[in-house]
Amino acid sequence: MTPNTSSLASQEVTLWQSNFITSAKYEMSALEKNIIYMVMSQIKKEDSADKIYIVAARELMLLTGSEIKYTDFQKATAKLVTRLLQGTLPNGNILQTTFVSSAEYIRGQGLIELTISPKIRPFYIDLKKEFTTFQLNIALNLHTIYAKRLYEILSMFKNMRNQKFRVNLFELKKKLNLIDEKQVEINMQNLPISRKLF
């Protein structure tokens, strides 16, 4: 069931996700992230694993106050199923998964049907510790993917006992895909041994 537009527009809707997602490395456009936010606003613990979530393009445009071409929505849905998320689990394992297992743009209706990847679903439901909460309307109206990710990262710290924000700048840039790791690796290999930092 699609959430009521007036309800989402007038109320403070809180989104929940595991710190694993907040801290994970992935690439995504601002529009793709907004689509994920809209799905997050609908997820419930009792949902079946194959539940289809519906995002209305018109509703998303109303909530963001932005005109978005329908062709951009089609491109976004096509990319969403390929977006790799990678992060380290509490047990030390490295999880590589996608956010959605399927995405379908319904031509002529401006609706997007999405199913969540089974591996990612637990990171959105029944969270009792190490989770991030943030506001849907704020997240939707940040214009760049970097602003959205930083908002999530800063929101993660407000739930921690020590709310001081400390992060290694290089690691933060890696999470936000601002650093070409292959290029860094090549440059490091070309440094004289005495100048190598790590």
What is the strand and helix layout of this fold?
Blueprint: H1 5-10, E1 14-18, H2 19-23, E2 25-26, H3 30-40, E3 53-56, H4 57-64, H5 70-80, E4 84-88, E5 94-98, E6 100-106, E7 111-116, E8 131-135, H6 136-140, H7 145-158, H8 169-175, H9 181-189
Antiparallel strand pairs: 1-8, 2-4, 3-7, 4-5, 6-7
How does this model look, in words?
The protein has about 200 residues and is α+β, with helices and mostly antiparallel strands. The protein folds into two domains: about 160 residues, Orthogonal Bundle (Arc Repressor Mutant, subunit A), CATH 1.10.10; about 30 residues, no CATH class. Helix content is about 40%, strand content about 20%. It contains nine helices and eight strands. The strands form three sheets. The protein has a three-stranded antiparallel β-sheet. A three-stranded antiparallel β-sheet has the order 3-7-6. Strands 1-8 form a two-stranded antiparallel sheet. Strand 6 and strand 7 form a beta hairpin. It is globular. About 25% of the residues are buried. The N terminus and C terminus are likely disordered.
> Rg to the nearest angstrom?
18 Å
Under CATH, the topology of the largest domain is which?
Answer: Arc Repressor Mutant, subunit A
N-to-C span = 51 Å
Strands in their spatial order, largest beta sheet: 2-4-5
Elements, N to C (H/E): HEHEHEHHEEEEEHHHH
By CATH, the superfamily of the largest domain comes out as Winged helix-like DNA-binding domain superfamily/Winged helix DNA-binding domain
Output the structural class: alpha+beta
Mean model confidence by pLDDT: 84
The percent of residues in helical segments reads 25-40%
CATH domain class of the largest domain: Mainly Alpha
Judging by the overall fold, what is the CATH architecture of the largest domain?
Orthogonal Bundle
By DSSP (H or I, 4+ residues per run), the number of helices equals 9
Uncertain stretches: 1-6, 186-191, 193-198
What's the main sheet like? 3 strands, antiparallel
Q: In total, how many beta strands?
A: 8
Query: What's the shape?
Result: globular
Total separate domains: 2
Share in β-strands: 15-25%
